[in-house]
Each structure stands twice: as structure tokens, then as C-alpha cells.
Specification:
- By secondary structure, the chain is mainly β.
- It has a single domain (about 1-170), classed as Ureidoglycolate hydrolase (Jelly Rolls).
- It has one helix and 19 strands.
- The longest helix has 4 residues, at about 10-15.
- It is globular, with a radius of gyration of 17 Å.
- The two termini are about 15 Å apart.
């Protein structure tokens, strides 16, 4: 089994899979008589048909034991899916490029800084939400409509991946060596 190296989440590194939702380095303008800074269009909600609706939910996720064996990935072929952390805790992201099935050798892992959200593009393979240390809440923006919007792929045993916990020093996640 290959061990996934966890990369810091950046807009450039994550671009093939979706959008990083953060204010750092993002365009903005003032609204509300100059009392509010609007960071505009940080991500785009994608839906397959005009009849689909964008919806907002809250997911409450329990932390997973680490190291974690990545046995499966899922995708949403009919709409994008965004996760915005509500409690300010870093979380892990495991993704693979678009395709009929994810390729184990192309899977990548990222860690957020706790203030970054992500928006998976429609059809991007990803692991279900992964909290690091404790139960966490996420604001989720995704699609509601007819049709099956969740495909799952289970890796053969020799294709599975190990996701090691990110190194944490003084309460902060540090860059992995490798």
C-alpha cells in the first residue's frame, strides 16, 4: 500500500479538483455603505440541469482513527459539493482526477488551515469528509434534484492507500517531509 503524503491546501494545487474557498488573495469590494468587505464568487455551484436546486446543509462529522486506510472514493456526477468548516478546525481532503474510476496512483491528499473551505467540481472523485481530531461541523452547499448523484468506487485491496495523520506541533499542522 502506498502512503499518501499530505500537502498544504493551495488554490493552485487544488485547481484540477475544485475551488479553495478562502479570503486570502481573493478579490473583494466594499458593500453596505462601506461597512462590509465582500469576497465575491469564491466558488461556483454546478448542477446538471436547470431543474436542480442548490441547497445548504450542515454535516456533523466524527473524527476518523489515523492512520486511515483509504478503501473507497465517491463522486457526485450531477453537481458540485462545497464544504466550509464552521468551527475553524483543519480537515483532510483526499481527491482523484475526473474519470470513469479513480486511479489509485493519482490520488492526492490535502490539509486545510481550518479557515479554508473547498468546492469539489462536478464528478471529481473524493473521500467523504475527514475530520482530524474531533467531531466537526461543516456548512455544505450541493445539489438537490432527481437522479443518482453519488457514485462509489471501492479499491481492490492492492490499490488501497494509507493516509497518515498530518504532523502537528504546538497545536498547528506542520509541513510533512518527503
Amino acid at each position: 500500500m502506498r502512503t499518501l503524503m499530505i500537502e498544504p491546501l493551495t488554490k493552485e494545487a487544488f485547481a484540477p479538483f475544485g475551488d479553495v474557498i478562502e479570503t486570502d488573495g481573493s478579490d473583494h469590494f466594499m458593500i453596505n455603505n462601506g461597512s462590509t468587505m465582500r469576497f465575491h464568487k469564491l466558488a461556483t455551484v454546478e448542477t446538471a440541469t436547470p431543474e436542480d436546486n442548490a441547497i445548504i446543509s450542515i454535516f456533523r462529522a466524527d473524527a476518523q482513527d489515523m492512520p486511515l486506510t483509504v478503501c473507497m472514493l465517491e463522486r457526485h456526477p450531477l453537481g458540485s459539493q462545497a464544504f466550509i468548516p464552521l468551527l475553524g478546525n483543519p480537515f483532510l481532503i483526499v481527491v482523484a482526477p475526473l474519470g470513469d474510476a479513480p486511479v489509485s496512483g493519482l490520488v492526492r491528499a490535502f490539509v486545510t488551515n481550518g479557515r479554508q473551505g473547498i468546492n469539489y467540481h462536478r464528478g471529481v472523485w473524493h473521500h467523504p469528509v475527514l475530520t482530524i481530531e474531533k467531531r466537526d461541523d461543516f456548512l455544505v452547499v450541493d445539489r438537490s434534484g432527481t437522479g443518482n448523484n453519488c457514485d462509489e468506487h471501492f479499491f481492490k485491496e492492492d490499490e488501497r492507500l494509507i493516509l497518515a495523520p498530518p504532523p502537528i506541533r504546538e497545536g498547528r499542522i506542520t509541513r510533512q517531509q518527503g
